[in-house]
Amino acid sequence: MLTILENCFIGVDENTADNMIRIAPNPGTGNFRLLMSDDIELENVELYDLRGRQVTSAMRLEACDGNPCSFVIDQSLKGYFILKVYTNKAVVTKSLIIR
After folding, report:
1. Which residue from 1, 20, 42, 65 has the fewest beta carbons nearer than 10 Å?
2. Is residue 15 within 8 Å of residue 44, measured between CB atoms?
3. Which CATH class is domain 19-98?
């Protein structure tokens, strides 16, 4: 016996924490902004190179009393990095390219 259900959807929720945070410009040269949904509160940000080494000391949050949050990364760093963003909703990882 086969039962057919109407209005039954399977899919992925598009409003995930990953979509609530964006980095601009990306790629960039060292000055970046975190663009977040209004209900997101930033708690912490960590920067890692592709070997998994934390290089957060090369990053400085400049202004984060609203949206967007600005941060600067040392001009000597170049390449691909992982930005780990801790918020009141989730921990989100984003790739970051520094030229």
Report:
1. 1
2. no
3. mainly beta
Per-residue exposure over 2-14, b if at least 16 CB sit within 10 Å of its own CB, e if not: eeeeeeeeeeeee
pLDDT digits (tens, 9 = 90+) for 51-91: 999 998 877 877 676 678 888 888 888 999 999 999 888 99
| Total residues found in the chain within this entry | 99
Residue 3, pLDDT score? 61
- Write the CB contacts of 80 (distance below 8 Å, at least 6 apart in sequence): 49, 50, 95, 96, 97
Percent of residues, the chain, with pLDDT higher than 70: 79
